[in-house]
Specification:
Blueprint: H1 2-38, E1 52-54, E2 58-59, E3 64-67, E4 72-74, E5 80-82, E6 87-90, E7 96-101, E8 107-109, E9 112-114, E10 118-123, E11 129-131, E12 134-136, E13 140-145, E14 151-153, E15 165-168, E16 174-176, E17 188-191, E18 198-200, E19 211-214, E20 220-222, E21 225-227, E22 232-236, E23 249-251, E24 254-256, E25 261-264
Parallel strand pairs: 1-4, 2-5, 3-6, 4-7, 5-8, 6-9, 7-10, 8-11, 9-12, 10-13, 11-14, 13-15, 14-16, 15-17, 16-18, 17-19, 18-20, 19-22, 20-23, 21-24, 22-25
Length: about 270
Amino acid sequence: MRMLKQSRGVGTVLAVVVIMIILAVAAVAYYVVSVSHSGTSSSSPTPTTCGSVITTDTTLSASIGPCSGNGLVIGASSITLNCAGQTISSTLGTNAGINLTGRTKVTVENCKVTGFQYGLLLTSSSGNTLSGNTANNNTNGFELDDSSNNNLTGNTANSNLKDGFYLTTSSTNTFRGNTANSNSGEGFAIEDFSNKNNLTGNTANSNDNGFYLFVSTGDTLTGNTANSNTGYGYSDDSTGSGTAGTANVYSVDECTSNHLGGSSPTGVCASQP
């Protein structure tokens, strides 16, 4: 009888040990899975196909294209797309390389976009940042349509079929240190009630007009350069109490060797020796 009790006691102890081992193994497995899913980066897996919809922070590791539709579509607000110098391309001249529609607080940086109708297109989007992007050989390099309070810094739009940077009904945007050279249309086209934009330290050389303002007021241009354009360095159709009788304000803007003249009206800019 005593032997039976002892064997039962040993069996109980073994059972407890086995259960403890199982629980320990399960805890370790859960930890490993959790670490592998959390990682050290918030970036999503890199999209490698045309038309991908980006909804989380994303860094490209390879170029995309040639695309027959949109290159990439920004599908959420408050995210970052870092192309890390990779190229998004098309050979059809349609759609957008990077399309932001109805987005806010998105950052798009270090992207190269070529061969689309719109290199980077913002429609009804506000509070976004575009930095260090290149949009060459598209129809329009950068287009803002009904978009406000965006910040464009250090971008390049060269050799596009129309305009380097085109704004329509887009106000209170900031352009700083951007370059628009050798476009068939305007370097910077600010049109159709695109009011109170701020352009500082931008360059627009060898375009039709360097800076073209049409039906837009309250814009401020400071320290920009517009040289060797086939039209004017600065063309402004507005009338008001701003610089040289326009409805906009110009300060320390350069204009040299433009075919039709430094500016229309005169007095908006100064030629440099």
